[in-house]
Known about the structure:
The protein has 16 helices and two strands. It is mainly α. The chain has one domain (2-292, 349-439). Strands 1-2 form a two-stranded antiparallel sheet. A hairpin with a 2-residue loop joins strand 1 and strand 2. The radius of gyration is 22 Å and the shape is globular.
Amino acid sequence: xxxxxxxxxxxxxxxxxxxxxxxxxxxxxxxxxxxxxxxxxxxxxxxxxxxxxxxxxxxxxxxxxxxxxxxxxxxxxxxxxxxxxxxxxxxxxxxxxxxxxxxxxxxxxxxxxxxxxxxxxxxxxxxxxxxxxxxxxxxxxxxxxxxxxxxxxxxxxxxxxxxxxxxxxxxxxxxxxxxxxxxxxxxxxxxxxxxxxxxxxxxxxxxxxxxxxxxxxxxxxxxxxxxxxxxxxxxxxxxxxxxxxxxxxxxxxxxxxxxxxxxxxxxxxxxxxxxxxxxxxxxxxxxxxxxxxxxxxxxxxxxxxxxxxxxxxxxxxxxxxxxxxxxxxxxxxxxxxxxxxxxxxxxxxxxxxxxxxxxxxxxxxxxxxxxxxxxxxxxxxxxxxxxxxxxxxxxxxxxxxxxxxxxxxxxxxxxxxxxxxxxxxxxxxxxxxxxxxxxxxxxxxxxx
Length: 448
């Protein structure tokens, strides 16, 4: 009886890791077929795990009971989306049904991650998989841009030429993905520290020793992040790194110098030295400008958009006030917003370019409040792990998840990463890791 269960659980772990690596590949899974495939596979994996879990005599997963309130909050939101769809609240039935399917996929993925990766070894494998996936995205995107080939995975680019996008259509969405995975990578680097006395030898080993592969992965990701020329993506990364890094250094009094050197090496070596050769100056010039870029069809300018984003946000806020409680329906922003902009807004907007506004407009406060509570609980678990200064590993993982969550929340003020399935699923995974960082099991017991 023991062997079949072990094979089943290992198969579920491998399948989940492969799913996380697959999500960014087909244009960030931002299509009906890719989203449906993600939800179907996630649902089947979760059902298999639930049946497997029911057959076990007992569970040693301490994280699972702590994650259930967050899982139920996600399900409450999906129930509200179902009500929007059934009662005709939504202005776009097809999109709302699509978002319902995606939302169920995110919910199942969250509980599946918590259920499977509740030991330290498994958690390290999970985080390492996200880092490997992001490093491959960064390397592939950088190579495509530097070589001039400019392809996504299966087709040539039709926009965003000259900047890194990986297999994502938008550079901003690759930047959002890298912001989250860089947080995980830096967190893993901090989690794998040792308590040896700080000497020049240990400092060199820290920078060039066994963790060199992880440091190299971080370098590649930072280079790609800079080469995306994403203003808010880079701003979010550095703001989150400085904010969480400062808190981390202040909390860890005993090893303050060592931790400061590690974080300083990331900032100085990765950013000020290496990124200088890959477009840091061009990124700086883009950050100075605050207007939309030209909308391109290939390399031809088809429409000038000299519209400041706050003008669009103003009309979006007016739309929210029309249905503050019920919303216009999940995924219905594109169909409902077009009646609101004045003559000063030209062009078609399929997203609000602000996740907070778009969620409020689509879900209303009824559907938005459970999502806010979900994120706040994830931040709470991440910070409590960060506070566990007696545990190198837990505090390091708390650092990583805090930075990843904060980074994407900052980025969400000027983009719509959470409307992209690959990024939304990765964000939900990191929220699950935040719970696991605090409640994972250090030593694996024998499973029967």
